[in-house]
Amino acid sequence: MRRFALAGLALSCVAPLAAQSPAPTPAAPTTVIRAGTLIDGVSASPRRDQAIVIRGNLIESVGDWSAAKVLPGATVIDLSGRTVLPGLIDCHTHVFLQGEVPAEGGYDAELLKQGLALRAARATVAARRALDQGFTTIRDVETEGAGYGNVGIKEAIERGYIPGPRMFVATRAISTTGGYPLEGYAPELDMPKGAQLIDGPVEARKAAREQLSNGADWIKVYMTHRSWVGEHGELVSQPTLTVEELKPIVDEAHGWGRKVACHAYSGIGLHRALDGGCDSIEHGLDLDDAAVAQMVKQGTWYCPTMAVYYLEWAPAGTVEGERDRKRAEVHGPSLRRAVKAGVKIVFGTDVGGFPWSEPIAQEFPRMVEFGMTPMAALQAATSRAAEMLGMAGKLGVVAPGAYADVVAVRGDPLQDVKAMEAVTFVMKGGAVYRGTDR
Ligand SMILES: [Zn+2]
Predict the structure, then answer these.
(1) How far apart are CA 418 and CA 161, in angstroms?
(2) Which SS3 state, helix, strand or coil, does residue 224 take?
(3) Cα–Cα distance between 93 and 139 in angstroms, integer?
(4) Which residues, other chains included, contact 351 with Cβ-Cβ below 8 Å and sequence gap of 6+?
(5) By C-alpha distance, which of 352, 430, 437 is closest to 127?
(6) How does strand 423-428 pair with strand 406-409?
(7) Hey, CA dihedral for 313, 317, 322, 325, is it positive or negative?
């Protein structure tokens, strides 16, 4: 276990002046992080040589290190050679997927050949990998046939049985008949499905109620399914739910104070997602101008998940291979249009769709490549994501009153955002999960 490993950290007893008020409570130990550079998740510019005072699981104050004053009993963590940021947030993960390659059976094998205990065991490793990489919060957008498994993983983390990020979970997800795998088997066979399939507004509302009552923080809906290259060279995607089916889901979720994430690539299904009142568009491979305008108007979040569409292309010259290339080709311009129009963008990766051992932060350079500034990309993974999750001021920011979720990286991500792959320190809720020089 790497938890609470503090070996190698410089320990002393100082705290800034700001820590003197209010009077320290003896029960909550104080930790002070000395940040060489602080990117706080909200401010437009970084600040140098900052002191972050942490009491218990919360940040108490942030101020210039030069104003710091020795206070007995405080622990100092010296990150003066690092860039310090809020704990990162990945808004599109699948802890119950492990990026199985087609040669090993791919997606189907995960559902057909891996029992739930095995899948849950692997999900605990996935959760640990997220934390290892500095992602202290994830929105896990469905379990792919593992039922309410991510509710259990979330609970195991919250109760301290396993290390892992804070989790906001969409559980089983919802699609329609013909709208989700497993597919391609003999029609006589009753195959398991990776999502809860519904037809009609009554079934839609019932599925939403079931999922919400079993612990879903979000409802995930697949508004498009298959995709291919159309006769004019455009990306075409098959729509799934109608607006009449989506609306009761959104209505039900909003009534519970929850939100709806819609997987939607392009075209009819994308527009139905927006007309039906989705809170976030996932992937949005080909947002046309009308969709972008509607997202701005409705305040819809965009979680583009760029990097995953550059991985594992089928061979060129095949139907799948051409589709895979087309998806990547239209995705970049789609993000550019959204950035230019001021759509609210969050960081998400679809990790699990690719192995958890690969860098989650590979998404940052893609966001920058297609029009976001490094600071905007970092805020998409911090304060913007927190805002979408209804946690503004609590997560995704290094400021008084926020949870003490803090990470550090080598180098300057504002110069080269690839630096986000070099996380050296991870604190979640005031507890050091990963020390400085590992
Ligand atoms: Zn996904």
Answers:
(1) 32
(2) strand
(3) 6
(4) 90, 93, 94, 99, 126, 130, 308, 358, 360
(5) 352
(6) antiparallel
(7) positive
Give the span between the Cα atoms of 211 and 196, in whole angstroms.
10
Q: How far is the CA of 34 from the centre of ligand 1 (A)?
A: 37
Residue pair 394/89 in contact by the 8 Å Cβ criterion = no
Contact 164, 131 (CB under 8 A): yes
pTM above 0.85, yes or no: yes
d(CA 11, ligand 1 centre) in Å: 42
- Amino acid at site 392: A
- The Å distance, Cα 181 to ligand 1 centre, comes to 13
Cite the beta strand spans of 250-289 per DSSP E.
Answer: 259-264, 280-283
* 304 Cα–ligand 1 center, Å: 11
Backbone phi, then psi, for 190, in 5-degree steps?
A: -95, 95
With 0-12 / 13-18 / 19 or more C-beta atoms within 10 angstroms meaning exposed / middle / buried, residue 389 is buried
Chain-centroid distance, C-alpha 173: 16
Nearest CA to 87 among 132, 153, 123? 132
Angle formed by the axes of helices 319-341 and 289-298, nearest 10°: 50
**For 8-33, how does the pLDDT look when each residue is reduced to its tens digit (9 = 90+)?**
343 333 444 343 444 545 567 799 99
User: What DSSP state is assigned to residue 351?
Assistant: B
CA of 197 from ligand 1 middle (Å) equals: 17
What b-and-e string marks burial along 74-100, b requiring 16 or more CB atoms within 10 Å of the CB? bbbbbbbebbbbbbbbbbbbbbbbbbb
Integer Cα distance of 283 and 15 in angstroms: 44
Strand pairing report for 280-283 and 259-264: parallel
Interval between CA 8 and ligand 1 midpoint (Å):
38
Write the pLDDT tens digit of every residue in 371-394: 999 999 999 999 999 999 999 999
71, 30 contact by CB (below 8 A): yes
Q: What's 18-61 look like in SS3?
A: HHHCCCCCCCCCEEEEEEEEECCCCCCCCEEEEEEEEECCEEEE
Query: Does pLDDT of 4 surpass 50?
Result: no
Residues written for the chain: 438
